[in-house]
Amino acid sequence: QVQLVESGGGLVQPGGSLRLSCAASGRIFRIKAMAWYRQAPGKQRELVAAITSGGSTNYADSVKGRFTISRDNAKNTVYLQMNSLNPEDTAVYYCNAEVRPVGTSIYFDSWGQGTQVTVSS
Hints:
This protein is mostly beta strands.
């Protein structure tokens, strides 16, 4: 009933930039926190950045100063601007949102399908 669809991944050279987008759709009453996670080959999924409905943010130490998370509540969309990318940023990036569907009082953890980001020369 609720879908998260990511876009914006791809191949970029070291030092380059990418902007990821994630749009939530379906019978959505409200969304609380939205976040980006990533998973590199052979590693556990890790939190990259998160943002509350009020705009408070937090970042993994490895991306502070390089990545910026933002959201458009009217569009149920979250963005991740990634600058100064390096090969260690290569991973599948997943969108996550705490969603309360219409007709319920419960928030569910929803995930996107993931988008590949590859940083390589």
